[in-house]
Structures are given as structure tokens and as C-alpha cells.
Amino acid sequence: MLSRSAQGLYWMGRYLERAERLCRLLRLQVETLVDRPIREIYSGWSRIYASLNREPPVGGLELGANDDFTLADSYTLADDLTFERTNPDSVWSSFAKGRENARQTRHCISSEMWTCLNLAYLRVQELSIGDIWRVSPERFYAEIVRDLDTFAGVAEATMYRGEGWNFLQLGRHIERVQLSVALLLAQIATDRSQDEAYGADWTSLLHLHQAFDAYGRSYSIEVQPDRVLDLLVGDPLLPGSLCRSLDSVASELAAIPPGPASDAEAALQRLASRLCSLVRNDWPDTEDRQELLEQVGEQSRNLHRGVSAAYVDYDTADTS
Prior knowledge:
The chain is mainly alpha-helical. It has helices at about 5-30, 40-50, 70-80, 90-105, 110-125, 130-135, 135-160, 165-190, 200-210, 210-220, 225-235, 240-255, 260-280, 290-310.
């Protein structure tokens, strides 16, 4: 496979995973605007921006004694995260870049995948925050998630299981690892900045990862932060857990046939194996969970750089 095709499929997976995750977060967030406490609304916006490492357009989000997040404040923040073209991580930007990578790699994906993704993109490209806000913003985010889930199902059913499939899935899972780590670290930081942990914040993380029912079966209806972390990080049976995502990264790397940069590929596979081992073996006994998550976050960024070194930007002089 040409390196530019591998790169396009890899980034398509990353961008579409990013758009889906942000839509899930925003759906949960706008649902809190109806009748939830001001502290919970503030915490939700702060957590999203902290996980994206982005400053909000309205300045710092500081909750004072008389602060009140009005509808206009949330309207501005939702617009920045959903439709702002200059925000590289907005839903619109991620969706548009994912669709563009799909367009450039149409020879590697099925026609059904392109049709599904293109139709979804055409439905949202001319929308604005005003269009969705006066009707039902949570419905809009749910529809985008449904479109992206449909695309994933179409890809599962129709895409040829060659290298292209491996690179598409590799991008999805590396993005999922990085987003999950960033969000969990943002939540831990939020808890440490407050006098106590709030169960609603951790419950929303369970819903985000479709893990609420699994948590109830494994533990109880009482949501405890340490147990939520154990489930979302270390449970290999939970589809969205960190452990399972890293296992998927290692599996996709092992499935990619050897290429010209054999040394870089071997180093990348060793790094993926070490990350899997770190989460499986060290997580249950670690005393500083924040530090371990920071290690996983840093090494996952090294994984991304390793993919580029092994399959895209390798030195051709070393392969002759």
C-alpha cells in the first residue's frame, strides 16, 4: 500500500473517532442545561475544554459564588466546539477532514462507505448553531453519533480486510486511547480542585463509554470514582476501555504486513506491547493513578509518532 493511502486511512479513522467522541460529550453536556445545578454545568464545560487542551472563547471558566451559566454562555461554547471552522478539534472540522481523507482514499474503501459518509456530511455542512439550538441540540448530536455508528457498521460489513482496514482501525483506536486518557485526567484534576468528588461527573463518564450497565453488574448502583476508573481503564471486556483499545492497537499493528522500515515497525510493536502490559499489570497495584495515566498518554503520543516513522515518513535510503 502507498504510504499516502495508509496515512489517509489512518487519519480518517482518527478524525471520525474524534468527531464521534465530541458529539457524545456535547450531547451529555447540553442535556445538563435543562435542570442540572450550575456547578455541574460548569464542570462539564471545563472538563471538555481541559481534555481538548483548548481555551474557551469566553475566557477562563471560573465558577464564583454568584456565577450563572446562562443559555448564551452555553450557546457560545457549543458553537465553538461544534461548528467553529478555526477550531481544528470541532465536530465540523473533524467531520470535514475525515470526509476529505475518505475522498482521497476512495480506491481503498468500499463505495457504500463513501456514500454513507458523504451523505452524512452533506446533511451537516450548511448547518449552524442557531439551526440546532432552537429545536433540539441533543438530537443533532445523537444523529451525528448514529451516522458515524452506521458508517462503522458499513465499514465492518463491506471493507476488504487488507492493510487499508488495519490502518483505518489503527487510527480509530489510537485516537480513542488519547481521548480517553485526556478525559480521565481532566476529571481527576477537576476532583482534586474541589472539596469532594461528585457522582454525576463520573456517571456521565460511564454513559459516555456505554459502561453504565456494565458498572452496575460489576459493582452496584453507587458510583465510586475508583471503581469507575478500574472499569474504564482496566476491564478487557468493555469495548471502550483503555485496556481493550490498547489491545486493539497491538492487534492491528501485528496484522499489518512487514514494510520497508522493518526496524521502526518492530520498535512500534514493542511500544504497543509495553503499553498493554502497563495497563494490564501495573494499573491494579499503582498508588498514583494520575501518574500512570500520564505515562499512557505520553506513550500513546509516541505510538502516533511511531506510526508516521514506520509507515509514512521512513527514510528510503535505509530501505534500499
